[in-house]
Design brief:
The chain is mostly helical and 491 residues long. It contains 20 helices and two strands. Strands 1-2 form a two-stranded antiparallel sheet. Strand 1 and strand 2 form a beta hairpin. Helix 3 packs antiparallel against helix 19, helix 4 runs antiparallel to helix 5 and helix 8 runs antiparallel to helix 10.
């Protein structure tokens, strides 16, 4: 078999496993647990194997001249596919205990696997058409995770997520038709594919089209003004699904923006234009707005959702600078934020599971009852704020350095200032939870403390994700060297 056909395995394997999951021998909880964890672990093995393969492409089907569905293995796809596979395994481990008392477990795990396969398809997309199909498929496969509890609030949140995603994909489709008309190919090509001869006289239309496309795919990443689906969908989904929606699926929007800006329209088309200034403005508004709303929010999972609104736009800000150092910081923050936010949502889920408490005002003294869980929360919070030497500090350092190295009026200094203000707000809305958890005060009823630590199914992924937060801080070159090489070819 030609080695490039191995690209199909990480995409098709979760789909096949999802179909098998509802077979009669897997109806009992123990069998389903073993099967799901084994599938997710094997999927990570397949992703690692693809990561060490040489770059290659596989055309699956040709629809018409210059229109085909193609999978491509490149450096960017390798990073995102490894991220997806690892985080899905962590969520699968966490969900074994969290979902044990839930109904419709078979459906939950089936869509967990289907959404992973869809995201793998998106990661390996070799052209715009394949990316668009993967984007839509990923939305449809992940909506049932948001709808799982079937409460009225879950239905509202899930439908809002669906509407925003489909609307964003429609704007992305405008970008596809624009590139197909004015470009030399829809195959992802470093630096862009717009034909100068075809584009002559249509520059304004191209700029409007690329901005609308950024807004469309940016909706999945929670960028203002299409950000409000995040706090609506996250609190109602099971904690394992909330973690993936926040920590990974938002990054599907980031990946789509990268592919469109850096591999289709090209950064030179945007650099120095009003589109870049509008894009930078929207990202900084989102960073500040998300942090402020997180400070005001009292529901724990909703506070973390607003935090995601802010933190993912750190990434988009780095991309909007169209500068190599900032691009490197943006991709590093993709990894760091995914690990941290998954851990924080797992913590929220563990607290809800063990105590039923959902409001941050109810968490006074919880660190005495669940010390390991809350220490993981605290350490990951340090990383999200950007305290050295954790991964969040390194990624934000690259973002600030990239901004300062540009000559973009105002934004070269305003960006780092907004990031610093957001970091201070992040410290407030996360550390206030930690302080109340471990230092409840003299009037706290210490005699009523009960140990409520969850089992290893929850503790293990929490510890592993906390370890990633440290490893990306102590050994960032594992990622930055690869990303810097990619940035040198596309910026």
């Amino acid at each position: 078999m030609n080695i490039k056909y191995l690209l199909l395995i990480p995409v098709l394997f979760p789909f096949a496993a999802a179909l098998i999951l509802n077979a009669k021998p897997l109806k009992n909880q123990a069998s389903r647990r073993i099967f799901t964890v084994a599938v997710l672990a094997l999927e990570l093995v397949f992703a690692v194997y693809c990561a060490v393969m040489d770059s290659d492409s596989l055309e699956i089907v040709s629809i018409a001249p210059n229109l085909d569905i193609t999978l491509t293995l490149d450096g960017l796809g390798k990073i995102f596919s490894l991220l997806v596979a690892f985080m899905w395994l962590m969520s699968g481990l966490f969900s074994q205990e969290y979902m044990a008392r839930e109904e419709n477990q078979g459906r939950y795990y089936a869509f967990l696997l289907l959404s992973e396969g869809s995201l793998m398809f998106l990661c390996f997309a070799g052209n715009y058409l394949t990316l668009y199909l993967g984007f839509e498929m990923m939305t449809l496969m992940s909506v049932p995770l948001a709808l799982h509890s079937q409460t009225e609030a879950a239905r509202r949140g899930g439908m809002k997520y669906l509407f925003y995603s489909v609307f964003g994909a429609c704007l992305g489709l405008l970008g596809f038709f624009t590139v197909h008309t004015y470009g030399t190919t829809t195959t992802f090509t470093p630096g862009g594919v717009i034909d100068a001869a075809k584009a002559a006289g249509h520059e304004t239309f191209l700029l409007v089209a690329v901005l609308l496309t950024i807004l469309g795919f940016g909706a999945k990443a929670g960028m203002f003004p299409l950000h409000s689906w995040l706090p609506a969908a996250h609190p109602e989904a099971p904690a394992g699904a909330s973690a993936l929606l926040s920590g990974v699926i938002t990054k599907a929007g980031v990946l789509s923006v990268i592919r469109v800006v850096y591999y289709q329209f090209g950064p030179d088309l945007i650099r120095g234009t009003w589109v870049q200034y509008v894009w930078l403005s929207l990202t900084l508004i989102t960073v500040f707005l998300g942090s402020m709303l997180a400070c005001k929010e009292k529901q724990l999972k909703k506070r973390l959702a607003y935090s995601t609104v802010s933190q993912v736009s750190y990434i988009l800000f780095g991309l909007a600078l169209l500068e190599p150092t900032a691009f490197t910081g943006a991709i590093l923050h993709v990894v760091v934020h995914s690990a941290i936010k998954n851990a924080l949502f797992f913590t929220a889920g563990a607290v809800i599971l063990q105590t039923g408490k959902k409001d941050v005002r109810e968490l006074r003294g919880i660190g005495k009852e669940m010390p390991v869980t809350m220490w993981c929360f605290t350490l990951c919070s340090l990383g999200l704020v950007g305290i050295p030497p954790l991964g969040g500090f390194v990624s934000k350092w690259y973002l600030a350095q990239g901004a300062l190295e540009t000559d973009i009026p105002v934004f070269s200094w305003l960006g780092p200032v907004i990031l610093l203000v957001s970091a201070l707000l992040t410290a407030w809305y996360l550390f206030s939870i930690t302080i109340a958890a471990f230092f409840p005060g003299a009037d706290f009823d210490y005699a009523a403390i009960q140990k409520r630590e969850p089992t290893l199914w929850i503790i293990l992924p929490l510890i592993l994700l906390t370890a990633v937060t440290f490893l990306t801080g102590f050994f960032p070159n594992m990622i930055t060297d690869l990303v810097s090489a990619i940035a040198g070819t596309i910026t």
